[in-house]
TrEMBL record:
The keyword Membrane applies. One of its GO terms (cellular component) is membrane. Residues 21-465 form the Major facilitator superfamily (MFS) profile domain. Keywords: Membrane, Transmembrane, Transmembrane helix. It comes from Pristionchus fissidentatus. The chain crosses the membrane at residues 14-34, 74-92, 101-123, 129-149, 279-297, 317-336, 343-362, 374-399, 411-430, 436-458. This is Major facilitator superfamily (MFS) profile domain-containing protein. The keyword Membrane applies. It is a multi-pass membrane protein. It comes from the Eukaryota. One of its GO terms (molecular function) is hexose transmembrane transporter activity. It is found in: Membrane.
Amino acid sequence: TGASSGPFYRRRDLYFLLTVYASLTFVTNFPSGFTNSSVNTAVEALDSFIDRSYRERGYHLNEGTLSLVRSATLNAWFFFQIFGALLSPMFLDEYGRRQGYIIGCTVTLLSTAVQVAGVRLALPELILIGRSLTAVASPLCDACLILYLQETAPLSMRGEVSFFCEIGHGAMCVLGSILGMRNVLGYDLEPLLLSSIPPEAVSLLIVWLVPETPKFLLIMRNDRTAAIRSLDFFLGDGVKGNERHDEILWQIERERAVEAGKRQSSFKECLSSFHIRRALLLSCSVLILTLSFYPLLQSSTHFFLAIKLSNAVSEFSSMLIMVIFTFSCVAGSTIIDRYPRRTLIIGFGIITNSFLLAFAVLSHCARLHAYVKYAALASILGYCISFGLVLGPMSWFVATEMVSQRHRATVFSICYAFSNALIAATNFATVPLYRIIGGSSFIILFIIPSLFSLIFIYRCMPESLGKQAHEVVSEIRKSQESLYEADTQPILSDITEEESWMDDECAFKF
């Protein structure tokens, strides 16, 4: 409402911060969005490359074996992301968010060079190795982005910023889908891979220019001068005295005093504490609702070809669903902070799975009646709209709204590893199983597990909209107390008054 309203001294400071977030979103989402969506529209080019490579070496692959090799190449991404997720807390706590970004972008750039060499040498194995290296680095960059947002974004902006990140992911998926189309870069993987090197080099330059977060600098490095410079970078240097910066620094220093007597978060502590374990289970249940998106991200062209759509229509439709997904994320940013989180997740979980069930049924009918294939395509478009509005963007922020600041990086890593383990398993099985039983594969792999997840969310998930993390934790702790009789209730002392105050109030409550 004014030049100096909110946390910013000047409106241009707000625009600059949004530019920084847009840049970091590009850095984080380009490798995952581009890499996975480009091989979707370029599915025939990938199949041709794999078949030609093995024939030149004296091996002749039948359709089933080729499908398995392709699935292994694509789904190695999700398998190796598990290791990246488990390694991320070590890098983030030891070297910081900025260094984590630099490491992740460097590995990604080198892995692309390995994939280009694989195409030049006609070795699909090098493409597999390159994708695996990128997959290890991807969770590190994702965790860095989440922590940058949590440690620099005002609370009033976090709902919109979360959708802003998913919009960036959708935009990168659209870019990859377009460049993977035969009419854009031709029927060859080499131009496609070469086109990704300049953006990844720019990504490395961006993270080199962005400073470390002020919270990490002051709490972990005890460097007040660098923390002040970081605040100036993210929020503007303001007016003489920097009163707002002094207040923020005081809050961070109080958090450091509270954290001084506490040990660093660990996997063991998170899994042994009831309220954190419940937050993990709820977050993983929400992530189960998103599993069906990843086969569409990587293999929608294959599914469209299976229901007898033409090559051109299949490629265009794969690109179109990414465009629709992106615009749905934009629309979703207008409702995220207006309606209860729990209601949105349950409601859109039901809607999304209803569209998926419609596609499963219609894809069977399309083999008997040609015109039904367009109804099947429409159901996928409806799925992408409902998924982009709520489930896609919100799923990764559920856990971090239910645990304290000290545990967020570790909890995020556990959820990321669990999610990618399920994605690797279901995504690897989807295409071969679809070839055998058709759309019923979606019912078995995704719809039935989602039904159980929705029941658990309905029974156990507390509302987090407009609440501090310690308030949500208190609700979870009350649910634990109800499990015990009054004379046998355990002492629930995981969270102190100071830590409750520190959870979000110190996380830059402007």
